[in-house]
Known about the structure:
Blueprint: H1 2-33, E1 36-42, H2 47-60, E2 64-68, H3 74-82, E3 88-91, E4 104-118, E5 127-128, H4 130-138, E6 155-158, H5 164-174, E7 185-186, H6 190-199, E8 203-208, H7 209-214, E9 220-221, E10 223-224, H8 231-235, E11 242-250, H9 255-264, H10 267-275, E12 279-280
Parallel strand pairs: 1-2, 1-3, 5-10, 6-7, 6-8
Antiparallel strand pairs: 3-11, 4-8, 4-9, 4-11, 4-12
Amino acid sequence: MKNSILFSIALSLSSLLAVTSCFDRDSTEPELQVQQEIKIVGSSSTYQATKILAKAYENKTVNVKFTFLPKSQSSSGIAGVRKGLVDIGTVSRTLKPEEDDSSVVYREFVKDALVVGIHRSVKGVRNLQTYQLKAIYSGRVTNWQDLGGSKGKIVVLDRPEDDSGKRLLREYYLGKELKNAPEAVIMRHEPELVNALNNTPHSIGTFSLAYALSNKLSVKRLSLNNVEATTKNVRIGKYKMVRELGIVYSKKPTSKTQGFVDFIFSKQGQEVLQQSGFVPSLEES
């Protein structure tokens, strides 16, 4: 009887240890599978390039997940990093003095040409001179026929004044004082403008060259002052309307953030950008 009881106790302990061992193994497995999240927010103009890089990084890295918060502006990306709410901020400008409190790092990672495009319904227009752009964006010229094109009322799809694209359009072609066309349609985000341009006959708008190339847009890209917007012309400095896109991150980044930053500025990361129509900054870490 005594041996029987001892045998039962031993059997019970053996079973208990086996069950405990199973729970121990199961409890460690989820830890191995936990994804490291990288949160990103900021300028909508920089999202496309950053998302291309994020996808490439996810494909080569185990257990990394990217979360892109709703598109905003450069200031939101900078503030988000400074407050520790996100890991990376996307920006289409350098830091302002009041934003640079020595807690964040800014690095430009790519150049993106801005092109002026028109809807495929517009015939006979391939190039615009500065004075013609001014006439269109101010509303002085309202029909493509007046510019040597097919007949059709011009629909100006414009961006807010604080947008990087509009700032560059003013800097190189429109000037700071030119008043906007009264009937111009202001589009808050670039993808919205591109979608409207693609679907609105006789329209004109300014958008990313890389976006046009990677998405194979059917809109017609114009030369400006007889200079075509191409990655080659951007690289050699011939085409001027170019914005520098960058990121900000903490001076003391987590290992997950540092890993992605290193990838962005690696040869592989820069090649990913180049294949998508961007002009890499070639700043290797």
